[in-house]
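Sorry to interrupt, but I need a hand with the structure work. It will help me judge whether the discrete encoding reads sensibly. Write everything out right here, beneath this request:
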Amino acid sequence: MGPTGLVLGVDVGGTGIKARVTDAAGTVLGEHRVPTPRADPDAVQLAEVIAELAVTAAAASGATRLAAVGVVVPGVVDEVTGVSVLAVNLGWQGVPVRERIHAALVARGVDVPVAFGHDVRAGALAESRPVPGATQPLDRGSVGFVPVGTGLASALVVDGAVVSGGGWAGEIGQVRIQHGPHAGLRVEEIASAGAVARRAGTASAHAAMLRVQQGDPVATAVWQECVDVLGEAIAWITAVAGCHAVVVGGGLAESGAMLLDPLRTAVADRLVGLRAPTLLPARHGDAAGAIGAGLLARELLDTLAPTEAPIGGRA
């Protein structure tokens, strides 16, 4: 087995799983989206779903074999041990997810190494990879990645390396607001796509955005409060880490200038006398996690070559 084989990158979300099969050049050969199993506190059902995706990928790959699987999940993740320390939305606490997945793969006849990581940090890895012709390289200096989705988290990339902090880095959405009208709430209860939809009384953040465009006062107030709290979080990330750029992704970022323009102002207003970061829209949208999972799988293969891969991809 070598780094030239195919890899399956899997991003496990609270409601859905996104998977991509790519070759060594990064060409996408297949994409899959399936629901995330519910009431699965031991990740057994998830492991079976991923094993089925791997079998499908292996069957469709022809002469080029599937060489590795990369899986990224939300919450507090220990990448070294392959354990989900805590994932509230999935009901996991201390679950050996990588081990479960590898066992399910072996049971289905797909004995390949498994790379395991955090969804947001994997997304940051994907977003920070160099792009030919880019005017602002993101693989040098400190770069923040903030996907504003169902919840809110962040990641920090320093000189191309993602900061893990033992699995605890980036959980900005869990910080409790101490002052003002939202005191006592967590940041993601105000500054996330899920919070915007819930507080605006709409089915989605996109629907809330449309109401803002129509001048709805409730939706407009909710949107501005999201921008204010998110701007505060990004300002602190920038002040502490010296970020020269912050990539904003997730569902809310799909609103484009409607979010980014007032957010740039909110961040700059809080960083008077300091260097404000360039706020950039994410390039990969909601595919960043799956792309990052594939990159983790490819990196694992690079570290194992030319020796035989150990069980679960562990050294």
The first strand starts at residue 6 and ends at 12. Residues 133-282 form a domain with the Nucleotidyltransferase; domain 5 fold (CATH 3.30.420.40). The radius of gyration is 20 Å.
